[in-house]
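Lecture 7 notes: from sequence to structure.

We start with a single chain of 341 residues. Read the sequence below before looking at the structure.
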Amino acid sequence: MNTRTNGQVSTDGGRLPRSEPPPSSQKPAVRPRGEGTILVTGACGRLGKQVVRMLHRERTVVGVDRRPFPDKPKDVRHEQVDIRRKKLKDIFRSEPIEAVVHLGIMHNPRVSQAEHHSWNVAGFQKLLEYVAQFDVPKLVVLSSANVYGPQPDNAQFLTEEAPLLGGARFGEIRDLIEVDMLAQSFFWKHPETETVILRPVHILGGVHNAASNFLRLPTIPTLLGFDPMVQVIHETDVVRAIRCALAPGKRGIYNIAGPDPLPLSRAIKILRRPSIPVPYSLGKVVLKRLWSFRLTTFPAPELDHIRYVCMVDDSRARAELGYAPQVSIEDTLKSVDADVR
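Now the structure, written as tokens:
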């Protein structure tokens, strides 16, 4: 019987998925490794392209994305498919899929909540259905440390057992939390599939996400009286973590962090950008007004990320996945200005 611990699904009295498989009355069949295809959803995003280019040198790769992929490697098969459509099933039928890497999460806060839910949740449910139906041995899901949420009473470093409170003030995170929870449930219901959930901290680089866009601003706003410690990770270190997660025998939830954390003020100094401190109440009002006129890409709830701490403990990933970041904090921060397309 399932129980809930800290808002997360568990079946063993509160312990969350780690590397040990859940108990099963019947030993699952094991498919031979190294011969099947790896399917990557969200393959046309900046991170997806890096994952595809890393994997195709060693394995057969199918990239799934409804966007075009004109610069794909020649030996990569690109299926321009909406993951909510039944055509996705034909890909699983066409060849043996050994692993699925799910990166196809919609993060655009301007898209309607209904579209967000349809793409992120309904689409992921369909993907999980096919992973189970076609006995895929490995599933890697890229979640985010943002599911924990910046909170005034957060512990200094959050473990994988911390409650997922990111949606309390920021509704757009709720879908990501639901995807994370669906993956946890799938872990327990389908022990024959090695399910790995990765929760990286703020990803920096050529990606167009809130953290990278914020640090690209010519003048970076800060909040009066707040200078939180922050954790960031270079996009290539996230790709390395995904590669570690694909290794046979790895399963569970893992926080993924970059170099040692540092104060936001120090990060701004490394970037050599001017900053302007504003009161929180004023910043919130101004940001809401700018958002309504489409003059900013940052909704007001994002202010909590430069007000409160949300740092994670990645010791489990280091010990069990053999993961460790390789890009320095200086290079990670400066990557927001390099090779942006």
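The two ends are 49 Å apart (CA to CA). Keep this in mind for problem set 3.
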